[in-house]
Input
Amino acid sequence: MFHFKHFSLYHENSALKISTDAVLLAASTPVNGVQSLLDIGCGCGVIAFCLAWKMQQEKEQEASRQEIIGIDIDKASVDEALKNLEFFPKKEGQHITFRQQRIQDFAQERQEKFDLIVSNPPFFVDSLKPNTAQKNVSKHNDSLSFEDLRDAVTQLLAPQGSFYLILPTNESNRFEQISHSHLSKTHQLLIQPTPSKPVNRLITHYSLSPSTLPCHTSTLCLRDTSGNMSQDYQQLTEEFLIK
Output
């Protein structure tokens, strides 16, 4: 079990365990004004639960109904997310559910749009695959191509909604190439492991509305020169992580 400040989550049976990527995506995604949220590839529900907690802290949203849906094709992951839901301290008016389903099928069925969509998707394409089927699903995009992800987001996102995505650098560039005519990149957070290492993760904000302004970029270094977690990282994640 992984212990956050305000709740704990089982993740032992999920396709991917709780990771820095998931925490970074949740911590850096704003939720002001969000009443409906979709997490694509939710795993044990970590990103959905972290964002649900943030949504609870928005005073202007306390009285409103909030819908949070997590989608994953891995049964063990969804079962664990549902188990976590039993213990998560959700507030009145906050409706959280998890479904084992292909996002391609969900996008065809769903009529209502989402204010916010997030994803920490499978991304390996040509690399050597792990020796378990569950890890293949969680890390390789055979079941969810970037084209399918783009199309689902385009179909499910509200006109003024936001899509936040975390990917390694090369994969992020590839997603941008196939999505530039569908989604507009407005903000990007560059993640460096240490000051001496190159950026290896990108958190990108996309919208449906075309933008004439250049994409705003910033950089977050996870560790300082001494190997300790940086002050910027600690500040970003202080709402969730126990020091």
Summary: The two ends are 17 Å apart (CA to CA). Confidence is low (pLDDT under 50) at residues 126-130, 134-141. The longest helix spans residues 75-87. Residues 29 and 164 are 7 Å apart (CA to CA).
